[in-house]
Specification:
five-stranded antiparallel β-sheet, five-stranded mixed β-sheet, alpha+beta, 16 strands
């Protein structure tokens, strides 16, 4: 964070107070980070873990950075801190405390680099389909070219032919999406928070000697395959959906729609292993834990090239553009 009166420019990929729940004793108060991309492993205090410069800032026309989003995230975290501790202790939370915690959970889902990338992929897919539909229809393509030429100047027949081919075969190109544009993904929070509020919450407790890890994409959902139709997705409203969110190294939230489940659940070692595997499968790049563990490092290596993403089907090109999220504004 900056000094008094300055705007914060060091932004955490996931909440700092949340990362503190995964700190261990070797060294005391430090979180171990596993870089799945490079294989690097290191430890640091939570304040210096999962930090990026201006991750949630917006560049204004004069080149300055607006940090209101980061400041808003800090307020969401502040309201959730108290009820978060209650859930860790296995206590029930209701009313405004539950609403504040549901808001925090929802924000932890949408604020990540993983979700912002998926949001960019969805936008790119929409653009691919729109351009593909235009290029398929002679009249629509002709109108699009007339509008383009009116604004940008004439194109040769060859240029139009190449452009149409690219619209029909977007796989030939990579689409760059400005990272700041993906901040629009945070608006998904508004629809998700009330759903999480209404779900039933259980707290999973590992056996002695086992622990949960977290990641840079810790909030995950899954519908068991036997309950998932081939044309369905694992939506939060699916009656069999299971939402997992490690709360600390020794507690994990399970949100669901099964009112018969107990609030506190002691789970066997194999389910802790499965929960940690889910963190690795869904991580964008980093895993976080309280100790240096060769088993967690192995998970990182095994799932290094696996990324959560969005599969687009139906009408459209056979293959879609590759998408790169990067900073495009100066």
């Amino acid at each position: 964070m900056g000094g008094a009166g300055s705007k914060p420019k060091r932004h955490h990929q996931v909440s700092r107070f949340y990362l503190e729940k995964f700190a261990g004793n070797d060294p005391t108060g430090h979180v171990w980070t596993y870089d799945m991309e490079t294989g690097g492993i290191w430890h640091a205090a939570a304040d210096n873990t999962a930090v990026e410069t201006h991750l949630y800032s917006v560049t204004l026309d004069d080149g300055t950075r607006a940090t209101e989003i980061e400041e808003f995230l800090a307020k969401v975290e502040g309201k959730a801190a108290g009820p978060f501790e209650k859930v860790l202790r296995g206590e029930n939370v209701e009313g405004q405390e539950r609403a504040d915690l549901a808001s925090f959970f929802a924000m932890m889902f949408v604020r990540t680099n993983s979700f912002r990338r998926t949001y960019a992929e969805a936008f790119a897919g929409y653009m691919n389909i729109k351009l593909y539909a235009t290029a398929q229809h002679d009249g629509a393509f002709r109108t699009a070219m007339e509008e383009y030429e009116a604004e940008h100047g004439p194109l040769s027949d060859k240029e139009k032919e190449d452009l149409r081919d690219g619209m029909l075969h977007p796989k030939k190109f990579k689409l760059a999406v400005d990272r700041e544009f993906t901040l629009s993904a945070l608006t998904v929070h508004d629809g998700l928070a009330p759903i999480l509020f209404d779900m039933d919450w259980s707290t999973l407790i590992p056996p002695e000697g086992r622990y949960f890890i977290s990641s840079d994409n810790p909030f995950t959902r899954e519908v068991p395959s036997q309950h998932l139709h081939p044309l369905e997705g694992p939506g939060f409203l699916h009656k069999h959906v299971e939402v997992l969110f490690p709360l600390s190294s020794n507690r994990c939230l399970l949100a669901h729609w099964n009112k018969d489940r107990q609030q506190l659940l002691n789970i066997p070692p194999e389910l802790v292993k499965l929960a940690n595997r889910t963190r690795a499968v869904n991580a964008e790049r980093f895993l976080f834990g309280p100790v240096r563990d060769s088993g967690i490092a192995a998970l990182g290596r095994k799932y290094r090239d696996v990324k959560a993403g969005m599969k687009i089907g139906g009408f459209g090109p056979e293959e879609f553009s590759a998408v790169e999220v990067k900073k495009l504004k100066p």
